[in-house]
Amino acid sequence: MNIKILLVPLFILMLFVVNCSTSSSGENINQSQEVGIQGVLQSTTVLILARESSVPSQSEMDDCYVKKILSTACREKKVPQHIWTEMEEIMSNYSDNFGKEPFCSINEFKFEPGVPFEVGAKVEVIGVAENDCQRVLLMKPGSPPSKLPTSLIKIKVLDGKDKGLEGWTWTGAVARD
Hints:
The chain is an alpha+beta fold. It has a domain at 35-45 and 78-176. The protein contains 2 helices and 13 strands; from the N terminus they run H-E-E-H-E-E-E-E-E-E-E-E-E-E-E. The protein has helices at 2-34, 58-66; strands at residues 38-41, 45-49, 74-78, 82-83, 88-93, 100-107, 115-116, 122-128, 136-139, 146-148, 152-157, 166-170, 174-176. The chain has a 5-stranded antiparallel beta sheet. Strand 9 and strand 10 (146-148) form a beta hairpin. It is globular.
């Protein structure tokens, strides 16, 4: 009888350990699959919900982010066509109603400003953010801070005027080959 009592918690603990180790290695596989891919730089925009301070409905989020339907609730925002050599990974609130989330932070007050990139230049993806941030905090002199629902990837420019430049740019700015 005592052995059965010990086996049940041990079995549950074993399932927990297997589950946690599987999901962790699965995330690393997805991130490493992105590295080494080549593509070309392109201009890009980000879709954002117009009412970030209130809680959007699931329908509004699906229409904007999944179906990509532009409306008064969902609008396109142009993002700078730049490559930044420095990026910080931080935890921040996306809106007033949610807890802290991982962000990639581009801070031109703290680090050098981004270098405008040449559309059509060939690049190689050489890295992804370690914290898997799906949001970017962009801070530039003369502009209010922007919290954008997108991610960054690290690239190396393979040709053109910026050949050899390594840095961070928008995931959507790289059209994969």
